TrEMBL record:
It holds the Pfam family Glyoxalase. The lineage of its organism: Bacteria, Pseudomonadati, Pseudomonadota, Alphaproteobacteria, Rhodobacterales. InterPro entries: Glyas_Bleomycin-R_OHBP_Dase, Glyas_Fos-R_dOase_dom, GlyoxalaseI/FosfomycinResist, VOC_core. SUPFAM superfamilies: Glyoxalase/Bleomycin resistance protein/Dihydroxybiphenyl dioxygenase. It comes from the Bacteria. Residues 4-133 form the VOC domain. This is VOC family protein. It comes from Roseovarius faecimaris.
Length: 138
């Protein structure tokens, strides 16, 4: 079970303004590969833009304080944003969290096609995502 930083998600009320800032001021570009295929009909239908430094993506997501309620999940990854790691063995990572007594919300594929995502809080309340790419997207 290896973790690798994949993306940082920033929640915003104005995706276009944030995208312009990160492109024009920070010099980031749209990622050329590994873009998520959003599942707009399964609980989160907000606008999202993607920029990258060529290695780490930044996802600029429209804030939705109700996304957790809509999907029946405790952890809402688009109320304040989150940091995301990719793993090669999500089942082992979930077992690790269980052994540590860390509760998590298992969003499965509710937000991104082919990504099995879980979300949990760090000790200060920051949201962390860990996901595994599954199927033909791996």
């Amino acid at each position: 079970m290896k973790l690798k930083l994949h993306h940082v998600n920033l929640a915003t009320e104005n995706v276009a303004r944030m995208e312009a800032f990160y492109r024009d001021v920070m010099g980031l570009e749209p990622p050329v590969s590994d873009l998520p295929n959003l599942e707009k009909g399964k609980g989160y239908a907000g606008d999202v833009a993607f920029v990258s430094d060529g290695h780490i993506q930044t996802h600029l997501a429209q804030r939705d304080v109700m996304a957790g309620f809509k999907t029946g999940q405790i952890v809402n990854p688009v109320s304040t944003g989150h940091i995301a790691y990719r793993t090669d063995d999500l089942a082992a990572f979930k077992a690790h969290l269980d052994a540590q007594g860390i509760p998590y919300s298992d969003w499965a594929h509710a937000a991104v096609t082919g990504w099995h995502q879980i979300f949990f809080y760090d000790p200060d309340g920051n949201v962390i995502e860990v996901h595994e790419v599954q199927g033909d997207q791996a």
